[in-house]
Amino acid sequence: MDRRTLTRRSFCAGIAVLPAAVALPAGAQAPKEARMSMLTRPLGKPGEQLPVVGMGSSNTFDVGVAPEARAPLLDVLRELHAAGGTVIDTSPMYGRSEGVLGDLIGELGLRSKLWLATKVWTKGREAGEQQIAASMQELGAAHLDLLQIHNLLDWQVHVPTLRKLRDAGKVRYLGVTHYRADAHAELERVLAAERFDFVQVNYSLAEREAERRLLPFCQERGICVMINRPFADGAMFQRVRDKPLPPIAKDLGIASWGQYFLKWIIGHPAVTCVVPATSKPRHMQDNCRAGFGPMPDSRQRALMADAW
Q: What is the DSSP string of 188-228?
């Protein structure tokens, strides 16, 4: 089969074999070991790096206790860890996801090897404190790597709580999130008014609004950027169904449309990591491969956008 005809459903098993040499993006860290590692981007703390592909959990980890429902999710976590990914993003908004993640991470013995991010999503200081404590209990986490104010809900009320938790060593980084383009101006206003380490925002070839102002703003201010909705809730795959990959995909070591979409995002210099959600282990593996090999420069990203 011609490599350019590979789709999300039929990516080649050989993607686990990586090229011997890659071009690293600005800020990325070259692997020390002979075996290739997922690319990373720098965080605010000196010397700390974050793998560029992580995992979201919206609409995927909200399952019950049945073994047949949880077994694929165990394999999703295994694939993330095997590829060198560490970032897991969740929220109390995502139903039972936090509790399911806590159970499965503990079952796999990965609690100390993952970078956990969750959110506060409620109104009022006391309610926020209670929700954060419940989230940490559900995740089985003594501390969080990132705590975010979900969709800016009551953000001014929650800021003192987040700072208090950071000062106590319970949280390492603070952030704000949204998933809609019409909230980008408000995100920028909040980020200008208060110091946050992270912003999580929607950005993809189908939703490019963030690159107009928000991403340059974050890059200038040194704010880390986590990307949600990289596939526009799956709508992007419908658009390219049965279409071959453009020729530029071969130059970038891209073997599927999922990798194409993710590499285009990661290629933006303001992006720290992307967190696609999936309940399918083969899709998790495919997503992770976007974090390996050469990243597109500005010229290649333009060509990718034109071809898409």
A: HHHHHHS--SEEEEE-BTTB-GGGTTHHHHHHHHT-EEEEE
Q: Do 149 and 129 form a contact (C-beta atoms < 8 A)? A: no
CATH number of domain containing 58? 3.20.20.100
Question: CB neighbours of 149 closer than 8 A, spacing ≥ 6?
Answer: 119, 120, 155, 158, 159, 162, 175, 176, 177
In a domain, 33, yes or no: no
3-state secondary structure of 146: strand
Asked if residue 177 lies in contact with residue 200, where contact means CB atoms within 8 angstroms, the answer is: yes
In total, how many domains does the chain have? 1
Residue 172 lies in a domain: yes
Place of tokens 């008014």: 193
Distance CA 192, CA 198 (A): 12
Span 145-163, average pLDDT:
98
Q: What pLDDT, in 10s, does the model give residues 14-49?
A: 333 333 333 344 444 444 433 478 999 999 778 899
Q: Which domain holds residue 221?
A: 51-307
Place of tokens 């077994």: 71
Helix (H, G, I), strand (E, B) or coil at 115: strand
CA dihedral over 89, 92, 93, 99, signed as positive or negative: positive
250 domain-assigned? yes
Single-letter amino acid, residue 154 = D
